């Protein structure tokens, strides 16, 4: 059966760009990089026998075609100069030429999905193929832009502002004090990029990638950079290191797999490529602040795939206010985040919506006047649900460091269980409320049966050093003498208490 969305697109243009989710057994056979089918499963000039996975992929690829009405065709003919010289441009030129044997589809092996344009015949072939689990229209996502930007106030110790209000509000700083900082956890960060030269982010990058306008990875990998400022800001909130005396990161020792996937070009191809890449980098959490206004279930299978692969999807709900939301941030399968301010109020712009079986967002987090990194160095304030989302992604990283064996469901539920509702806001605007890092860790340890580690004994060298310092003070006569009270033996004190008790008892007895 053809979905209404695909059917409408076919009736208007004759083709539709679709995402094809393959069955797990088929997807498991994909082991090569997502550089397009031409690279992953090359067509052989000879008539020799093919391996089963290769033959299956080529059979599926034959259902796709290059559409002259597609965005890819429009970019190739009227897009930026030099676009055809990119990896994506070369793929397009090959795919539209019958002589090159380049399939007109993309494959993303870590996700187990394909992307391309089909006509009515191709769609029917895909839907009747036993290797295909689902076919849906490719959604057109856009960045959830901040509603406001402001210059940063004075920061650091001199200004008495060493930790952002958002980090404090989630009580993430209390976990930092106990040694939990997100160390070793990789967070997928799909955005406008990241300024790799920023002092707060230099050591926070596990890997960086840029995907061209067709959705192909740029090679050689460029220096980590931001095509705007949104990505640097969200990255700083997740895992920014302290810089200039200012702490901005919820998980200040987590690592980022950061990719440029938005905006411009074939956005869905760029996003799928970024997701596939982030999974390949070992990401346990995926932070995305992008979406399609309203509810569309076209991206739902991808969100479900992330969870199946052990990746927690943390998505912004949107900035259009009450009664609105964005997909995929409004899926029940996503951890949906709205924005709150430092007075415990839900931001007027923060989206919220009730559906028949669930409501969004799942929770709210600091997202108004959020201080974080700015490209070129320094900091700036931004407001939006995109600023709230990385707070929760950072919190998830802290919890995974403490309990690395936690499943996606256990991790999400612990965050849910920790939430406390804002007393002045209706439930419809905040849902569960704001998460508490300390309570979330306790809930996760309880759910997984993992005990808190015993506090480590101070190193011998430290004890020895402390003893030497005390000896020096005594020698100089600067050591504080022991108080007289402390010097007294405890026995007389106990006797004194006993005598008082006896006297009191005697008086009571006489009174009776």
TrEMBL record:
Q: What is its EC number?
A: 3.4.21.62
Region (Disordered) residue spans: 451-512
Q: Which Pfam families match?
A: Peptidase_S8
In what residue span(s) does the Peptidase S8/S53 domain sit? 182-422
Q: Where is the composition biased (Low complexity)?
A: 451-464
Sorted alphabetically, which InterPro entries does this protein's record hold? Peptidase_S8/S53_dom, Peptidase_S8/S53_dom_sf, Peptidase_S8/S53_subtilisin, Peptidase_S8_subtilisin-rel
**Skewed-composition ranges (Basic residues):** 465-475, 482-512
The record ties this protein, via PROSITE patterns, to: SUBTILASE
Q: Where is the active site?
A: 191, 230, 386
Which biological process terms from the Gene Ontology are attached to this UniProt entry? Answer: proteolysis
What keywords would UniProt list here? Hydrolase, Protease, Serine protease
GO MF assignments: serine-type endopeptidase activity
Give the family from UniProt.
Answer: Belongs to the peptidase S8 family.
PANTHER family for this protein: CELL WALL-ASSOCIATED PROTEASE, SUBTILISIN-RELATED
Q: What is this protein called?
A: Subtilisin BL
Q: Which organism is it from?
A: Anatilimnocola aggregata
